[in-house]
Amino acid sequence: MAPQIEHSLGFRDAWQTFRNTPPASLIDLGSGGGIPGLVLAELWGCPTTLLDSMEKRCRSLEEYLTYPGAPKGASVVCGRAEELARSLEGRFELLTMRSFGPPAAAAECAVRFVQVGGLIIVSEPPDPASTTRWDESGLAKLKLRLVGFVEKQHRFVVLEKTGETASIYPRANGIPTKKLLWQ
User: Fold this and answer.
1) CA separation for the pair 117, 92 (Å, rounded)
2) In which band, very low, low, confident or very high, does the pLDDT at 128 lie, cut at 50, 70 and 90?
3) What 3-state DSSP class applies to 160?
4) Which residues have a Cβ under 8 Å from the Cβ of 127 and sit 6 or more positions away?
5) Dihedral of alpha carbons 8, 49, 121, 115, sign
6) What are phi and psi of 155, to 5 degrees?
7) pTM above 0.90, yes or no
8) Are 37 and 74 in contact (CB under 8 A)?
9) pLDDT(170) > 90
10) 3-class DSSP state for residue 48?
């Protein structure tokens, strides 16, 4: 099995650790080449949004979705998470991301997309110390709760949205990475 597919299946396993049925909707934030979003869209058949800020990547994903056999119900949105979070607010039961940036920036950029009770699953570095990267008081500011870590072939952190997002989050483009909510 290709390593990218195996990694994508880890997101599925992390979801299934906490939920019994496939998500009703999915957004893959910072989708890049479409991993894990395309794999999960194919597995679950749920409406899936692939979001990336780079137009070249978005065009490639859009082209892929025109091919026979591409997952049905998948779409591409091009733009920065900080800008699109409010227009797509609360539309998704699951948000996935990998290689997005520091935990504080990733959580801040992701939180508004997810409905209350929804999950955010983030691929983690293989380092066992990665479990200390997610500051629970910082997450609480965003109305997120650390549900747990899932380790199969890869390690994932699972966050649950517990309440409505404060209007200030996410902050303007680039600010979540320049002025982290926690270190």
Assistant:
1) 10
2) low
3) strand
4) none
5) negative
6) -110, 140
7) yes
8) yes
9) yes
10) strand
